[in-house]
């Protein structure tokens, strides 16, 4: 049976990680996959996370199965992170959350749910976006349409294009939005623009789906939830795929969450029972360690304060490296204006490098980035930034 199967293309992001691992040139630099690195180029386990894990290992008494929706304390803490403590949605039990296998797992549950239970046929996705968005919705058989997002001449949000394209989205269509730190552009709507979009969603009857994987990386945990909370004010139904991979540094523990918000508690419970059926047929129930760790950190005021400080450190380091990157490019003789990079949010910068320039960086200089021109600013350190900028200037 298998001899006729065609090889699948390498994943545009995870495939890079494999190629980087195999790279033997010692000067190699990885600006591909979205992982945080500290000033030493390491991806450490945050101290608050390590402390929670240590406590967990000492205290846990069983490896019994979790329920289909996972660790209850984790799901409750997730809702508080998304909407804010004591939000009306939480008080009225209009939200239901299931722990998921990372943000990708949550997106897949959301896609299956939208297709099977809401009979949604079409999803609107920003252009550009994280490549897996398209693949996930195609995998459930939905039509993927894109809306303009990025103006490459001004390196900013193509607001008019976005509004023109989303005006065509119909009632019942899923509209996918990046909660903050848009991947790959690093450009987010302003609060005023979020308000307009939230209003448009309510008027037109879209089913909004937030992909919220970088909370805390733009301006802070609360600030970064502005867009989602603006939607929550005006829209009675929402889907959210969240992830703690980045802000807790728990990448390989696969800590994500699928949340649905309904008009009232009774509908939420009914709809959520269907989401649980979807989960049961995919992976039955999730793994405990990562989610229990997150729950412990978020429930313990000292650990939470320590974690928030560590998250602030990560965000500030990325901001510092953005400025250094722009300054060093200038010092190395770049004549183009790269100042827009300082204004972008989160780990990524949409550098404007072409696919050919990205290929040359890899082939000639062992520098790995995504072919869309997305570079991970968190991969820059004082040790590699000069080499990186000199190489970029050579390929420009
Ligand atoms: C990324 O965009 O690099 C991350 O979200 C990792 C991934 O799964 O692609």
The CATH architecture category of the largest domain equals 3-Layer(aba) Sandwich
* Residue share in β-strands: 5-15%
Strand order across the largest sheet? 2-10-9-8-7-3-4
Span of the ends, CA to CA: 47 Å
Keywords: Aminotransferase, Coiled coil, Pyridoxal phosphate, Transferase
Cofactor: pyridoxal 5'-phosphate
Pfam family, one: Aminotran_1_2
Family: Belongs to the class-I pyridoxal-phosphate-dependent aminotransferase family.
Key phrases:
binds (2S)-2-hydroxybutanedioic acid; 7-stranded mixed sheet; transferase; Aspartate Aminotransferase, domain 1; alpha/beta; coiled coil; 15 helices; globular
Question: What would your notes on this structure say?
Answer:
Keywords: Aminotransferase, Coiled coil, Pyridoxal phosphate, Transferase. This is Aminotransferase. Homodimer. Pfam families: Aminotran_1_2. By secondary structure, the protein is α/β, with parallel strands linked by helices. The protein has 2 domains: 118 residues, Alpha-Beta Complex (Aspartate Aminotransferase, domain 1); 235 residues, Aspartate Aminotransferase, domain 2 (3-Layer(aba) Sandwich), CATH 3.40.640.10. Helices cover 45% and strands 14% of the residues. The strands form 4 sheets. A 7-stranded mixed beta sheet has the order 2-10-9-8-7-3-4, with helices on both faces. Strands 1-12 form a two-stranded parallel sheet. It is globular. The model has no long low-confidence stretch (mean pLDDT 96). The structure holds (2S)-2-hydroxybutanedioic acid. (2S)-2-hydroxybutanedioic acid (LMR) binds next to loops.
């Amino acid at each position: 049976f298998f001899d006729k199967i065609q090889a699948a293309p390498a994943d545009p992001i995870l495939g890079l990680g494999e190629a980087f691992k195999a790279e033997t040139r010692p000067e190699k630099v990885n600006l591909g996959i979205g992982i945080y690195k500290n000033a030493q180029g390491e991806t450490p386990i945050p101290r608050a996370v390590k402390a929670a894990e240590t406590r967990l290992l000492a205290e846990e008494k069983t490896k019994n199965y979790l329920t289909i929706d996972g660790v209850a304390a984790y799901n409750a803490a997730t809702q508080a992170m998304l909407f804010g403590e004591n939000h009306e949605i939480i008080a009225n039990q209009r939200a239901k959350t299931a722990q998921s296998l990372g943000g990708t797992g949550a997106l897949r549950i959301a896609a299956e749910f939208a297709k099977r239970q809401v009979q949604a046929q079409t999803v609107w996705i920003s252009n550009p976006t994280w490549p897996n968005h398209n693949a996930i919705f195609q995998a459930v058989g939905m039509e993927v349409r894109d809306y303009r997002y990025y103006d490459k001449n001004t390196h900013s949000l193509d607001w008019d294009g976005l509004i023109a394209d989303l005006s065509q989205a119909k009632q019942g269509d899923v509209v996918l939005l990046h909660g903050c730190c848009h991947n790959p552009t690093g450009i987010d709507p302003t609060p005023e623009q979020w308000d307009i979009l939230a209003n448009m969603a309510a008027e037109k009857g879209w089913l909004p789906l937030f992909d919220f994987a970088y909370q805390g990386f733009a301006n802070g945990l609360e600030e970064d939830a502005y867009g989602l909370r603006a939607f929550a004010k005006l829209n009675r139904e929402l889907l959210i795929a969240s992830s703690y991979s980045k802000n807790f540094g728990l990448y390989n523990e696969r800590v994500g969450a699928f949340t649905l918000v309904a008009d009232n508690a009774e509908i939420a419970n009914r709809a959520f029972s269907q989401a649980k059926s979807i989960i049961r047929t995919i992976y039955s129930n999730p793994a405990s360690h990562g989610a229990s760790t997150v729950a412990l950190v978020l429930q313990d005021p000292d650990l939470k304060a320590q974690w928030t400080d560590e998250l602030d450190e990560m965000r500030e380091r990325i901001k510092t490296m953005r400025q250094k990157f722009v300054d060093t490019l200038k010092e190395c003789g770049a004549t183009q204006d790269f100042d827009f990079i300082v204004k972008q949010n989160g780990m990524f910068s949409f550098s404007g490098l072409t696919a050919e320039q990205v290929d040359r960086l890899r082939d000639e200089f062992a520098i790995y980035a995504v072919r869309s021109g997305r570079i991970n600013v968190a991969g820059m350190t004082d040790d590699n930034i000069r080499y990186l900028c000199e190489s970029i200037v050579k390929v420009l």
